[in-house]
Design goal:
By secondary structure, this protein is mainly α. The chain has helices spanning about 1-15, 20-25, 45-65, 70-90, 95-110, 115-135, 135-150, 155-175, 175-180, 190. About 70% of the residues lie in helices and about 0% in strands.
Length: about 200
C-alpha cells in the first residue's frame, strides 16, 4: 500500500506542479519523448500508472479498519484511496478507469462487511460531489466514452480490436484443457500464426 501511495503522490505532484521527482532524482531514467505530456509518476507508460492505481485503491479501501486499529492510521488509508483514484484518473487511460468501476462493483457484491460498504459509499458520495462541482472531469469522462463507442475514431478502433483479441484468445485456450490451464507461454504470439 505505502509504495503505491507514494507512486500516487508522485502522480499528484506531476499533475499539479508539472514536476516529476523521478525525472530529477533517478539517474538514467529517461522519459520517452512521446509521453512527455502524460502523467507517468514512476512508470514508463500512463496505462501502467492507471493499472497500478486501479489495483491499489481497493487494497487501501479494504485495509481500512482491518490492518490498522487506530483512527490516525485509518486516515492515511482514506487519503491513500483518494490519491490512488485521482492518479488513476490522471492517467487518462480507459482500461484502468473501467477496471476501477469493475473493482467498485466487485467490492459492493462480494464485500460482506458493513463497514467496507460504508467506506465505499463515502467515496462514491465524494466522487459524485466531484463530478457535480468539477464539470471538466465529467466532460473528460463523457468524451472518452464517446470516443470509445465511435468505431470510426482511433480509440473506438482500438476498443473494437481488443474485443476481437478476446474472441481469438478464447478460441485458442478452449481447444484443450492443458491450453486453458497453461496457455501458450511468453513470446509464443511471435511464432504462433493466428489468422
Amino acid at each position: 500500500f505505502y509504495a503505491l501511495f507514494l507512486v500516487g503522490i508522485f502522480a499528484f505532484v506531476e499533475k499539479y506542479f508539472g514536476y516529476n521527482p523521478v525525472d530529477s532524482f533517478i539517474e538514467g531514467y529517461v522519459r520517452n519523448w512521446k509521453y512527455r505530456q502524460d502523467i507517468l509518476s514512476t512508470y514508463p507508460h500512463r496505462i501502467l500508472l492507471g493499472t497500478a492505481m486501479a489495483m491499489g485503491w481497493p487494497l487501501a479501501l479494504t485495509s481500512i479498519d482491518w490492518i490498522n486499529k487506530t483512527k490516525v492510521k485509518n486516515w492515511v488509508f482514506y487519503v491513500g484511496v483518494l490519491i490512488m483514484v485521482s492518479s488513476c484518473y490522471f492517467s487518462y487511460s480507459r482500461g484502468p478507469w473501467l477496471a476501477s468501476v469493475l473493482n467498485g462493483f466487485t467490492l459492493v457484491g462480494l464485500g460482506k462487511k458493513f463497514k467496507l460498504r460504508m467506506h465505499l459509499s463515502f467515496f462514491l458520495i465524494l466522487i459524485g460531489i466531484l463530478l457535480i462541482t468539477r464539470p471538466g472531469v465529467q466532460e473528460t469522462l463523457t468524451k472518452k466514452i464517446d470516443e470509445t463507442m465511435d468505431v470510426n475514431s482511433f480509440k473506438g478502433q482500438t476498443y473494437a480490436y481488443r474485443w476481437e483479441l478476446w474472441k481469438v484468445s478464447y478460441g485458442e485456450i478452449s481447444r484443450s484443457i492443458p491450453r486453458l490451464i497453461l496457455g501458450y507461454g511468453p513470446g509464443s504470439t511471435e511464432l504462433y500464426k493466428i489468422e
